[in-house]
Amino acid sequence: xxxxxxxxxxxxxxxxxxxxxxxxxxxxxxxxxxxxxxxxxxxxxxxxxxxxxxxxxxxxxxxxxxxxxxxxxxxxxxxxxxxxxxxxxxxxxxxxxxxxxxxxxxxxxxxxxxxxxxxxxxxxxxxxxxxxxxxxxxxxxxxxxxxxxxxxxxxxxxxxxxxxxxxxxxxxxxxxxxxxxxxxxxxxxxxxxxxxxxxxxxxxxxxxxxxxxxxxxxxxxxxxxxxxxxxxxxxxxxxxxxxxxxxxxxxxxxxxxxxxxxxxxxxxxxxxxxxxxxxxxxxxxxxxxxxxxxxxxxxxxxxxxxxxxxxxxxxxxxxxxxxxxxxxxxxxxxxxxxxxxxxxxxxxxxxxxxxxxxxxxxxxxxxxxxxxxxxxxxxxxxxxxxxxxxxxxxx
Length: 395
Ligand SMILES: Cc1cc2nc3c(=O)[nH]c(=O)nc-3n(C[C@H](O)[C@H](O)[C@H](O)COP(=O)(O)OP(=O)(O)OC[C@H]3O[C@@H](n4cnc5c(N)ncnc54)[C@H](O)[C@@H]3O)c2cc1C
Hints:
This protein has helices at 10-29, 33-42, 47-55, 74-86, 95-99, 101-107, 110-122, 199-202, 242-278, 290-318, 324-349, 360-368, 377-388; strands spanning 127-131, 147-151, 154-165, 172-178, 192-198, 207-211, 220-231, 235-236, 280-281, 284-285. By secondary structure, it is an alpha+beta fold. It binds flavin-adenine dinucleotide (FAD).
């Protein structure tokens, strides 16, 4: 991929992003919707697709050039993810390779950055697994129960995680665990630490991985830790300050997920408007009826509005400015817009929407996730209420 700095002038940057979009579209066109349907049916992992996306440099856009990436911004990364989703692909199989490394980049030691980032950029190492959620504590992250206790040169991990995606297709996982009991800290956000886990070495040696059968092909698993030993050198950032390590990565993640939703939304609108023009019932295209065309036009309008918020959040992020509110609002607006567009696309296709060969039901299932994960809509609304509108904290 051509190199570009995020300080490039606005016009050059926009032109460069168009260039990136075109290249992603061309790559995705080789993996048609039947490919994704087959992955969904067989619970397969799109190894070839991910390898090609990596080799073309698209998953390393956020890694600085000194570590072998393209050194571009979240705006460019968002364009990549949007185009992947708009093509009909399922970006959830690989999006985390793009952003989980942000924690290593921002909080890793020089040794960790030199060891991992170039290999993540080249695809030699996959860091696309992120272990936070637990079955008994859910969204209440600071109450998580997995512990990591220091023992000589190691930490010893015990506990359980749930919904940890892509771990079977990752070499490394970032793990959030308690290193100090919550009742021994002054603030509940303290006493949590992040570790870089060598998944292949850990599995069978204190880490058990059990896939979860789920509604979408997201490769999510339950994890059981039983005295897993992690070298102390794999602590990322300071012990006890892991919550900040995780928080720092969230804005980029929110913007990229929102961009995926915009891509899904555009996919649904394209499909719905095309079908509305083609399908004839009562001797005329169904799209001639306002009852069919208005919901599609509304869905388009909502997706366009969400896209503006994604753009705003990404530009603020890249400029190093605060963007928590915009990143969260982008994710909320885009996940709701893509879901609305998916619903309209289903309705426009009538009974055929249910036929797998039309692909809509798969995308419909996939885009539903984003109102729940990586953070649910209610939690975003709480954030906006408390941090933007200064209302009392609700939980
Ligand atoms: C397919 C999939 C992939 C995932 N991948 C990963 C992954 O790779 N790594 C990872 O760590 N996690 C992952 N997750 C977990 C995901 O982040 C959580 O499911 C999500 O954060 C919600 O947590 P929960 O499921 O425990 O819901 P809960 O916390 O039990 O919440 C249930 C509902 O109650 C609402 N709620 C809870 N508390 C409040 C409150 N105080 N006010 C208002 N509403 C509230 C929530 O909004 C939600 O709608 C994944 C989940 C799925 C389904």
